Amino acid sequence: MRGLMQHDELLVSRLLERAETFHPRVRVVTAGPAGAHEESYAELAGRARRVASALIARGIRPGDRVATFAWNSSRHLELYFAVPGMGAVLHTLNARLHPRQVAAIVRHAGDATVFVDPALAGEWGAVAAPLDAPVPLVSLGGEEETSAVVPGATLYEDLVASGDAGFAWPDVDENDAALLCYTSGTTGAPKGVLSSHRSIYLHALMHTMADTVALSERDVVLSVVPMFHAGGWGFPYSATLVGAAQVLPGALGADAATLAALIETQGVTVATGVPTVWINLLRELERAPRDVSSLRMIKTGGAAMPAARIREYRERHGVEVLQGWGMTETGPLASLARPAPEHDDLSEDERDRLLAGQGRPVPGIRIRVVDVSGAQVPWDAATIGEIQVRGNWVAAGYFSDPARSAEALQDGWLRTGDMATIDPLGFLRLVDRNKDLVKSGGEWISSLELEAALMAHPGVQEAAVVAAPHETWLERPLAFVVRRGGSAATKEELLSSIAPEFPSWWLPDDVVFVDEIPKTSVGKFDKRALRERLGPSSDGGDGTA
Ligand code: ADP
Fold first, then answer.
1. What's the whole-number mean pLDDT along residues 370-376?
2. How far is the CA of 314 from the centre of ligand 1 (A)?
3. In sequence order, what are the residues at sequence separation of 6 or more whose Cβ sits closer than 8 angstroms to the Cβ of residue 188?
4. How far is CA 268 from CA 41, 273, 295, 300, 434, in A?
5. Which position has the higher pLDDT, 542 or 414?
6. 416 CA to centre of ligand 1 in angstroms
7. What is the pLDDT of residues 43-75, one digit of tens each?
8. Parallel, antiparallel, or unpaired: how do β-strands 89-92 and 177-183 relate?
9. For this structure, is 435 an active site residue?
């Protein structure tokens, strides 16, 4: 027998409708070099409706991909609602990738239009050059942009002005695609994760639970995590749902002094970003103290936050650091390191170790940790297996990529490539990763691409790139190289030969020349053995943009 309940589609537009109705005066603030820009949810909703109708007038149809190449701003937030709201798919492009990679992604996604942040106009020029056909552009400046900073682009404000403020959000299917976000693939090109309205809505609701982030209308949310990363980890949507004020750092990005000032002046209560951002903020607060007492929580993830830094936030600033684990494919939030009642008697050290782990799955997500035969490992905090995930905000495949979609799943469970132990209470601890990637300051670097480029040098016989631990960036690439007989190629020569192909922060911090690279039984580079040769972590350098 079927239940006798109403069905109401879970739509992205409904999140905004609620903020507009019940929190019309709550502010969304965007930081900028010339001062902050502020608009209310009422204004934001009106502008989003205008943009949605203007997109339709420009021929954008349901299912079309509409891209953004932009930093966090209220205009980007308007597009977060306008594009899915009218039935198209918002495709957020990662501004930190090499232009060649961005161009490949634009081509694969078949983007119909790209909204370009004027602060990224130069970078966009390099992306557009290799595209076969020009993509219609909109320059995402504010009212101060009177002629398009992005060559050949329409002005965003003209688009807003041409739209219909009375536009009614259409009833789309909650299972339709809303957001497309590419994530780095271990091999080959990035993979497109296609979230639905329903998955975004349910993930947003999850952020409001008392045992997760407990997001409420009393919060002021600072999203440092770029809006091009897994939908800004979903916070732009969940903050809107509850009517929390939002603070977006604009092109000023993750600069620690800017963030400290924003927290103090805006009374930020919840801030999101990768560990590197918060490690840098600790140093900034030491250098130039600020009042950050409004902050109740730093929500971090994307890489493991060190226990010592979690403790430092608590002891020096009274701030709780909550670590989440997940990936673009899992919403992204799949598990949270929040102590359970059973942990009340832990010593401080034990508790910090728990907080620095990957925690338990959030309600709505199921996990299993399996060995190579697919059997679940015992919950003994010792046996290592791969984390696999299921849930309503977990990817069931990749956009337009049947081969890698098939590889991604095992009996309907998403394979994460993260190797972990699980304890008797179900708490995860990541111990390794079976994907050949380095995560520097929260951004991926493909070791395989670096190896291929190094091995293209005539003086190189073999090259293996591994993740070396690093205090600020947490991981940095380091290359082991076997020279070809007689070659005297130097580190500088090798790095400058591959430099044009990659963003500067991808280049290995060091090249170690060796006689031989250890191999596994099947002849692959034994990266675990190489990592074991590495010394303690170092500091400094340019880990990411
Ligand atoms: P995101 O944009 O959320 O960082 P990605 O898909 O780029 O998502 O990266 C996901 C991967 O990052 C995970 O599979 C894992 O290897 C790593 N990761 C994410 N969160 C953590 C964490 N809390 N601790 C350690 N590694 C993490």
1. 96
2. 23
3. 404
4. 17, 14, 6, 15, 37
5. 414
6. 10
7. 999 999 999 999 999 999 999 999 999 999 999
8. parallel
9. no
